[in-house]
Specification:
homotetramer, alpha/beta, 7-stranded mixed β-sheet, 5-stranded parallel β-sheet, 13 helices
Amino acid sequence: MTQLRVCVVGTGRAGMVHAENFRWRVPRAELVAVVDSDAARAAEAAASLDLPHAGFTDLTAALAAGPIDAVVITTPTFTHRDLAVEAARAGVHVFCEKPMALTLAECDDIVAACESARVNLQVGFMRRFDPPFVTAKRDLDAGVVGRPVLVRSLTRGPGLPPAWANDVRRSNGMLAEVNSHDFDTVRWLGASDIVEVNAVAAALKRPDMRDSLPDFYDTAVVTAVLANGAFGVIDGVCPADYGYDARAEVVGSAGVLLVGELRDSASLRYTREGGGVSGHYVSWRERFKLAYELEAAEFVDSVQQGRPPRVGGLDGRAAVAAVLAARDSLALKRSVSVEY
Amino acid sequence: MTQLRVCVVGTGRAGMVHAENFRWRVPRAELVAVVDSDAARAAEAAASLDLPHAGFTDLTAALAAGPIDAVVITTPTFTHRDLAVEAARAGVHVFCEKPMALTLAECDDIVAACESARVNLQVGFMRRFDPPFVTAKRDLDAGVVGRPVLVRSLTRGPGLPPAWANDVRRSNGMLAEVNSHDFDTVRWLGASDIVEVNAVAAALKRPDMRDSLPDFYDTAVVTAVLANGAFGVIDGVCPADYGYDARAEVVGSAGVLLVGELRDSASLRYTREGGGVSGHYVSWRERFKLAYELEAAEFVDSVQQGRPPRVGGLDGRAAVAAVLAARDSLALKRSVSVEY
Amino acid sequence: MTQLRVCVVGTGRAGMVHAENFRWRVPRAELVAVVDSDAARAAEAAASLDLPHAGFTDLTAALAAGPIDAVVITTPTFTHRDLAVEAARAGVHVFCEKPMALTLAECDDIVAACESARVNLQVGFMRRFDPPFVTAKRDLDAGVVGRPVLVRSLTRGPGLPPAWANDVRRSNGMLAEVNSHDFDTVRWLGASDIVEVNAVAAALKRPDMRDSLPDFYDTAVVTAVLANGAFGVIDGVCPADYGYDARAEVVGSAGVLLVGELRDSASLRYTREGGGVSGHYVSWRERFKLAYELEAAEFVDSVQQGRPPRVGGLDGRAAVAAVLAARDSLALKRSVSVEY
Amino acid sequence: MTQLRVCVVGTGRAGMVHAENFRWRVPRAELVAVVDSDAARAAEAAASLDLPHAGFTDLTAALAAGPIDAVVITTPTFTHRDLAVEAARAGVHVFCEKPMALTLAECDDIVAACESARVNLQVGFMRRFDPPFVTAKRDLDAGVVGRPVLVRSLTRGPGLPPAWANDVRRSNGMLAEVNSHDFDTVRWLGASDIVEVNAVAAALKRPDMRDSLPDFYDTAVVTAVLANGAFGVIDGVCPADYGYDARAEVVGSAGVLLVGELRDSASLRYTREGGGVSGHYVSWRERFKLAYELEAAEFVDSVQQGRPPRVGGLDGRAAVAAVLAARDSLALKRSVSVEY
């Protein structure tokens, strides 16, 4: 079977995770190019990936240089629309990191371009491929705990994101850059669209950031109401210092599911001083290592099987819609309906 | 040392937990009377407790019958004020189950009566005595995870409460009857008063209850803002079907604490069909068995040592204040400031 | 109902656990006397227990002083036979700490005296009352994991025992003083008598102890064969430094049961430095607090209900038989059949 | 950098795990051939791996057909010596599954051939690459729990092995085929050679197998003494029915390490009926998925870096020596010294 020839755009942290996966770990795919607007970084990435060329500084050049079947877009959110549309118009399948875009209009442009070009569009909600989350979804679908009543989802992570992502005006802030996953999880595990949100947020970890970015926040809680009546609760803390924490909990009409943990291996130790977990997740790279591989495999499989991917453009768009409503709720200090 | 002579008022489920503890398990205390307005139930309780009399049908009669040093009030919330004030005026120490009362004015009456009579007043927030919660508080006070940024607390329990407690107009509803503990936990572990709340609630488990009680709800989420800037998140589901679930989580500026679990013993089993926890908490009686004993011991100790108890009337009052604000938030569909 | 009047003999650590339980925590029992050959310790114990007298220096005096229904024997093992026989001959029910005695002949004397006097005899295998162990036994009896194939049981505890217990010639050593519980657990959960054992032991923690006690050992492993063909594996380490560790595991023909844990509460914490269990068992007093209470309640209940206790003299004797075979295996460096 | 060209010999379950890893998941390696004496199976394997040829029926043919840098030997144990020696003589690096061979003489032949040919020799103790085991080893080396005093290691797995492996005379039995890993773990974590063993074994799960194979056993316990004085305890049950269970525990002079668990993801569920782990390991393929990938990567890295692998021939030989002593202990019904 032909290998899917993949070009990864963006060689930041997420970009390199994808690039390494498509280079080494995804069956029936081949990494053929990397793109970074910084030529030195592009060259460095290409070298570390054993690619036979020096990397490209824009997608246009990469597309021109040789046969590419698919792009993986990992650049800052405000660039997603243009890159995705360009790729789609070139007849290339699109994998787009989350958040899908800054506005619903941008999401619509991407969806329309992909539909028009008849290429696949997958959005990077890798939690949908993480074994604990997959198991929970399977249990929910099997009715093990009845219908969903309350879905909690949280993301807390160490380290501030890059500068642009801290600027709420350029990125929609932490709720978009970090908690997009939680909006998707609430909708996915809750099996219903989010129709209303209420958000609070503050700069509790890094109040100093407000000196230059008055809208900055690092701690947030969002309450959501789903179309089926269930509630959602999301929280985010970033930077969180203590590790990378991504968990969910679903109260159903007949039970509860607890999804995910903070520890990274089953090694416990006890000494006179106390008990400890030997090692815990300190990065999303470790926590979701397998999920990133599996979502990449799904991208390749869905393209090669000529079917839609399990997480598509409308899923990405729904999360953007909920994020925007939460952003408005922060500004208006009241509940806000989600506009789809 | 003299035994503290205790009269338990109310022989419902919580009443019998307290009565059995003071009868059998609390050092330096002696159960001398039980009161229930239903004479048959009073007699049955007295017999099951090996008491030398038949029980009383009102507190007045019990106080008249013989020397009593302390009362434990476990009757419906709307009766707390009158009973506590009567006991205080009789010079008797007061232990009052949660919620302390229906209104702040009632709380004030109880506090004033006890202060005036120079008797102790303790409120039944037994989670403050539960080992996992105590350990978390100790860790917080020791700065193990830094200052609190986000406190989550939940209570989900099986079975509907008695009829009066489902009637929001008589009881303030589930947020009062079930989640009082969580409002106290958020304030206690968050180390700061709750200043604002936003609540959502619905009848997701028992929509049929709304036929007779239009205000009934069984599922709720409350977001809280604390005076120190930290956030609180509370959820409640009752009836929850799957067991008795009381957990908390504190994100601090330097770490996170996870408090409590659903399982009741360290017995795991694995078979071809899967892995299981052999037994989990199905009732608050099992989950907080030790905490109830320890809060009773604290009541006795604080009286005998002539010092205030570790959980007093102002703690009970603060939870009532937050509950009332959450009730108003439900009605007004917006955030509400807590009036103290 | 009449209270069972209890006299505790021995006011060491185990003695005080029992004395406090019968004094404060066991329904329908009354602590009426304590005995210690050291008059000052007897007096101190009596005072700390709020007893109205100064304690006794021998059982004979206590029995003479007033009505006693039952004794609890917690003195060194080599004294058990004489005390138990004296109590039985006085018509008093006997609770005897483990190990029951040093030899099978001593065990036989105790059993015979109690049978002859028609008094109850219970042996202090409190693990049979510990919730995780009880749950495992219930699951086994219900066939959840099939018939037992392999039973592992371990005890590791901090701190050296008192001097006499380190002297193998006076106490039968750690396998008797510490691992008696494990021999009982293997037989109880394995549902079959131990017929053969093979033991290895060494002084790996405290080799210095061998200077004065050449037979001393602090680490041991015993393999056992049960009459039903199942295997048992026991290990012991004392002193263990890291806490008090008592766990078991049963492989059945259709599953496995894991029994017990090292942690004492469900408080977890994570910081940048790692994850931790906030608190773990540092003493058998904490680990088996509830089990000690429950075995005391069983002692009272079985006497008052006129039925044999759930753990009797033959259970104590069977553990002694297995311990003696393991002791011989150490000396002979080969497998040894258990003589019953 | 050049890709390591790998030929996998044997297309059974372990063979296919390795073949798929070298085909898809191991950086800088390339699967170039598979060998199976059954031509149809070889062809099927080659097809499922997208290889451009039909597979080979013997190693000689594969070596002749084209450039091969390394072989991975996964055939029955009794074939290891000849295959490894042939590969080494062809100047090809050797990865050999466990157990390394049937006798020490065979091990010596393999070691000598690889040394003589200056090719790498790695033995398939993949637990040394499993994150929980690696973490435990790291903690041990860092002195977190002091020096090892007692090491427990167990393997219990579902399903009978292939027929030859049940025949003790052809395979050395379960202690070799299943528990080789445990002998290696005891030696590795105990940081010392095994000098004496005592074993018991029986056919408790499948007594019917003894009709045709009188030496067959499915349940075993081995006690080991290490050169440094520490003890080891190994148990094995196969078939175990309940899943794939591989855990270890190290008691050190200052603490304890618990390594591994039975569950495969952090999904818990609670319903009225009880609590459960959603999914647990049912096969070594799932349990050690990552470990197999990591040991394969180590094989490639060590060859390409011109250094010895982290698990070499002498490690494999030491496990065989301990297994043979355990086999003799079963026959002689006494402790047996390990001959190296």
